[in-house]
Design brief:
- This protein is 76% helix and 0% strand.
- By secondary structure, it is mainly α.
- Helix 7 runs antiparallel to helix 8 (178-189) and helix 11 runs antiparallel to helix 12 (236-264).
Amino acid sequence: MLVHSRAGRRCAWALFAVLFVPLFALPLLVILVASFSSHWSGAFPSGPTTAHYAAAVRGESLQALTTSLVTALTASLLALAAGTWAALAAAAMRARSIGRKVMDALFVLPVAVPSVVVGLAVLVAYSQPPLLLNGTRWIVILAHTILVTAFAYQSVSAAALRLDPMYEQAAAGLGARPSYVLLRVRLPLLLPSLNAAAGLCFALSMGELSATMMLYPPDWLPLPVLIFTATDRGSLFTGSALAVVLMAATLLVLLAVSRVRTKASYR
């Protein structure tokens, strides 16, 4: 730690506990406790039950979880491909060139405005021919891709600027073609950043609600929307169980991504 004295470390840990427990840990703990309860009329819940989880892993809830996973995985892969391509193209430009500034602005714009604005823009743009996506799952996936591509672009762009050009120059000097240098030298060096960007895009897509509420068709209901509708109807305990399932599924995927990232960091 930056604090070297014992008293200072104790104060730092006490301040951390005071800020962390009520702001982060306590709300999550309340949701976890509520997911195992059937009543909460006093200071503490009552009626412990696992019925909410039994309902959360079957029927409509299981289908909503599958929808969220498919949407997040597809949007993350598309965002990673588009963000990586744009980041590599931007890295080839001069740092203060107009093209670099325009590209940075275009890819940051979706996160600079509210996500509901992005949802409305996608709805208006793709509700008429020649590209009619309204009422299909693809309009939801497209909106998620637009929203998370900025994070993939920023992550890969920052890593690409820190790469030592010596490896690429050595490969090119030995006669390697540009495609070989890209696939066998540059992308492997960027693999830790690519994994980090993929995990971030997946987590953000799994929890996205505002734009999804405007776009989802009846046959493509993501889990955050189901959580919102459950709590809006007053089913707080069912919604809490669904929220825990959503968090668990997201954390499991992020754990798998982090293990891949750890192996890649030793290359």
